Amino acid sequence: MDGVLASLAQAAPFLLKGAAYTVVLSIGGMACGLVLGFLLALMRLSPLKLLRWPARVYVSFIRGTPLLVQLFIIYYGLPQAGIRLDPIPSALIGFSLNMAAYTSEILRGAIASIDRGQWEASYSIGMTPAQTMRRTILPQAARVALPALGNSFVSLVKDTSLAATIQVPELFRQAQLITARTYEVFTMYLAAAALYWVLSTALSWGQHRMEARATRHVRV
Amino acid sequence: MSNGIEPTQTTVEPSVDAPKTPAMGEEVVIRLDNVNKWFGHFHVLKDINLDVRRGERVVVCGPSGSGKSTVIRCINRLEEHQQGDIIVNGVTLTNDVKAIEAIRKDVGMVFQSFNLFPHLTVLENLILGPIWVNKTPRKEAVDTAMYYLERVKIPEQASKYPGQLSGGQQQRVAIARSLCMKPSIMLFDEPTSALDPEMIKEVLDVMVELAQEGMTMICVTHEMGFARSVADTVVFMADGQIVEKNSPKELFANPQEERTRQFLSQIIQH
Fold this sequence. Notes:
The complex is a heterodimer of chains A (220) and B (270). Chain A has 220 residues and is mainly alpha-helical.
């Protein structure tokens, strides 16, 4: 038992450093994914076919291919096209592009679920479409989208472990490196799992806080 | 029925007696000139011609599906017409977005289903337009909002969310929200149709007061008591056409068209 604790203590700094990368990749991927996803959602809701179709094909491609393959294309494939990216930027781009497809579907559904009367009331007081989106529709759509976005976020936290395959020194990669030296496979992977669990639980908690804030106005 | 139609039991008389002040000016502020509109193949508006003068109070009535809501929704371009001209305050409605937004600032609208912003408090609902559309300083916007909340007699609800109010209160907030933009014209699209009977009066009272102050109003409603007491003009529509247009006294007492007589007799039967 002492041996396990000692090796955990030794491994802790590496695992925590790995966890920090995991957090950065998760939050970075989610943030960029949300921005891109919102743009994609707007394209998909556009009356113009020229905007709708590219977005549709993009979402279909990303959702229809494994994230692992996407990461490989970016990190190992792009250099052949003359674009050489470091592991962390590669991973960030991969996660952002992937999240964008999923969040765009969530946001599109949430925006479309808001009653037409909300648009009309906003227009009737002279608001522009952009103002209406920002002040009237998005705050309400956010409430609809938050649970699904939270789920996607938790998935992303766990999926960042795939970045281990493209040399990103994140949590799972750190556990792999330690076990390669110490052969404490069971302990280290359990420790890594525990850290993923803590991270996703903390993020879910944050998500619930945001949901509570967004639903203030709903009558109890 | 030749001796006229008395307001029915289901119609609520506004409590305020509205003197027919001759506030109406000569200036035409809304002109619909041969307006036609189709929803797909359905010809919903047929050659609509209507002039509304400053200060005029127009009530539009007619059976459902007659196009009466569509007419007023065309005036602030929530619906687009396909033929003819709609001229509001001298500006002809086209696809010019800036012109449409300018017209909407000056033309308030009240909806059957209130359409308050549920995620904002009553006060926030009222200041949203002034702050973001008119760039009014927040304090001034709040003062204006509180003034109109007093006017519709619910200042104490300012910090509540719409979902916490009764239907009648919500509709009064919706009226106040429009008034906060200081419009010169108000459109009402069946403002009392979604309300319980006991709440209709509180909303009509607010509308009667507005009418007495000389607001130019077009009101789609089935409240014949309201039409009788405040309207300068009643327009009867059926099947996408204006069938008859007259003062309420004349239209109710001596409807010229068979279709109008039919409609009026149906209203008073229950």
